[in-house]
From TrEMBL:
This is Bgt-51937. One of its GO terms (molecular function) is hydrolase activity, acting on carbon-nitrogen (but not peptide) bonds. The keyword Transit peptide does not apply. PANTHER family: CHITIN DEACETYLASE, CHITIN DEACETYLASE-RELATED. It comes from Blumeria graminis f. sp. tritici. The keyword Hydrolase applies.
Amino acid sequence: TSYCGTGPDYCTSPDCQYKYGPQCDANVKPAGSSTANIPRPHIGSVPYGGAGIYDCVTPGTVAVTFDDGPYLYTADVLDKFKRYNAKATFFITGNNLNKGPIDVTPAWSNVIKRMVSEGHQVASHTWSHQSLDKVDSETFQNQIIYNEMAFRNILGYFPTYMRPPYSQCAEDNCGSKMSRLGYHVVYFDVDTAGYLNDDASLIQKSKNIWDKAIAGVKPSTDSLLEIEHDIHYQTAYNLTDYILQSMYSKGFKSVTIGECLGDPAANWYRSGNNSRF
């Protein structure tokens, strides 16, 4: 059963009934021309679309990735990484959680610019966090293109890396579409479930998951691809410090997803004005 109403409880993605509510986050289109017709050649050796990527290939690296932001805590997360001279990848959702579109909300556009200037990688987590396996073709396209347009409005370019919401992207449908759209589909091999343990009394559960993962690998031969969410307080202010201290004490280095896959930085983005990036 669905209910009509106004305000954040009704209009915030991903729960807003976007087919019936024109003011839903999913239906807010970024300004400017569409990026849909920009060429999307497959460059480099990292696979596009398909079954997706679950593992890094560069020994001694940990790709810490954050989904769903930017949010209230993201700038403080960046501060923590800066203290370690560590890098991360932020899978950005363009308009979710009643936070306002990233390209017209100065707090978000500024923090995205800061991510790039400090050497982090930004990637797409769709426009409003709809499951790509459960939407029609028009909504699917909008979820990708609207986020590209917002990135273009902020940076002048948009990512070639993405992570599907809820990790739902069937290889024979969504995966094929993402290949045509020129995206590397990224999953993970470590999930501390910080989003389930967002309380001071619970976050140790996530630390225990991390401890088990890092104990089972060696920097001389192994790597990790780890997922977090910068929209959760305990992840931002407790778990992030714990993970960074732990990995560096064991000889690992926190890097971007592109670095951990051996992909040159020039391949991480496409120009937003139809010219070569």
